[in-house]
Amino acid sequence: MNDRAALPPVLLAHGWGGSFDATYGAAFWHDIFADAGLSVAGLDLPGHGRRPASHDAADYGDLAGAAEKDIRDDIEDAVGFSLGSKLLLELECRKPGRFRRLVLGGVGANVFAPERGVEAVADVLESGAVDDAPEPVKMMIRYAAPSRSDPLALAAVLRRAPNPQFTRERLARVKAKILFINGENDKGVAPVTELADCIPGCASMTLSKTGHIDLPDDPRFAEAAAAFLSENINAKQK
Question: The pTM is what?
Answer without folding.
Answer: 0.94
